[in-house]
Amino acid sequence: MSHRNALLTPTGRPRLARCAVDDGRPLRRAAERFRVGHTTAARWAGRYRQWGAEGMHDRSSRPHHQPRRTPPAIETRVLRLRREHRIGPVRLAARRNIAASTAHRILARHGQPALAATDRATGEPVRRYERTHPGELVHIDVKKLGRIPDGGGHKVLGRAAGRAGQDRRNGTGYAYLHTALDDHSRLAHTEDLPDEKAATRAGFLRRATAWFAAQGVAVERVLTDNAWACTKNTWRQTCHDLGIGPRRTRQAAFPDWLDWYNYHRPHTGIGGRTPASRVTDLSGQHT
């Protein structure tokens, strides 16, 4: 693209070139007529002689020869590692003994999107989705958090003393944060409950459904993990009573992910090595 202040546009260049080449005028006179330097006029006249009208277009400023560019064989290995292990520039650099900036340039040169924008399982660009309206699908999950008593927990008092202090009546033990999140609006309802038993989860579902209803959202389906409580009749009956369709996530890919994490995924905290590589007697090691 020509600079906005350029005296010679793609239209003006052929006119200058024809003036100097076809009309036979001296370069200096042609340069004066088009108000450019002698060197500029000579450049465009020379291109016109060699390539004709095709030589009047802008060219890339990229050098023809790049002696310090990463060899194609290394680029191929970097791209293969990216496809197979879904890792970013830092881990790729550790695997191939190159700079992280070099790995980043290789990925950018070949149009590889950032990991945050891809699906970790397939490597394909993430196509974000959401349900079409509030209440169509509500995600329910439980987060178990340890309560730390006054004076510290087991890391301060020792494990035996720490266990002895896990008494819910004294405000210690565990907090089971039950959360219901609407897939479309991201509206959330959370309760701190004493356990995650089937009856507790069922009660939470009833209250969450009522809370969403008060916000004008009718819950149609709920999605949970495969926790024991969500496989019991108590949960299924509660969903039935509320007119809600229960759904559970699939976990068939978890063993493959765990194998990838332990044996194949370079960890930046240990110099790009895999966790298994630091445990020499690990059973089934196959790095």
Describe this structure in words.
A five-stranded mixed sheet has the order 3-2-1-4-5, with helices on one face. It has helices spanning 12-20, 27-33, 38-51, 72-85, 89-96, 100-109, 154-157, 159-164, 198-214, 233-242, 254-263, and strands spanning 138-147, 173-182, 188-193, 221-224, 245-248. It is an alpha/beta fold and 287 residues long. The chain is elongated. The relative contact order is 0.08. The longest helix has 17 residues, at 198-214. It contains eleven helices and five strands; from the N terminus they run ααααααβααββαβαβα.
Distance between the termini: 51 Å
CATH architecture of the largest domain: 2-Layer Sandwich
Portion of residues within helices: 25-40%
Shape annotation: elongated
Strand content: 5-15%
Q: What is the topology, as strand order, of the major beta sheet?
A: 3-2-1-4-5
CATH class of the largest domain: Alpha Beta
From the helix content, strand content and strand pairing, which structural class follows? alpha/beta
Let me know the CATH homologous superfamily of the largest domain.
Ribonuclease H-like superfamily/Ribonuclease H
Number of helices: 11
Task: Give the uncertain stretches in residue-range form.
Answer: none
What is the makeup of the main sheet?
5 strands, mixed
> Number of domains in the coordinates?
4
Order of helices and strands: HHHHHHEHHEEHEHEH
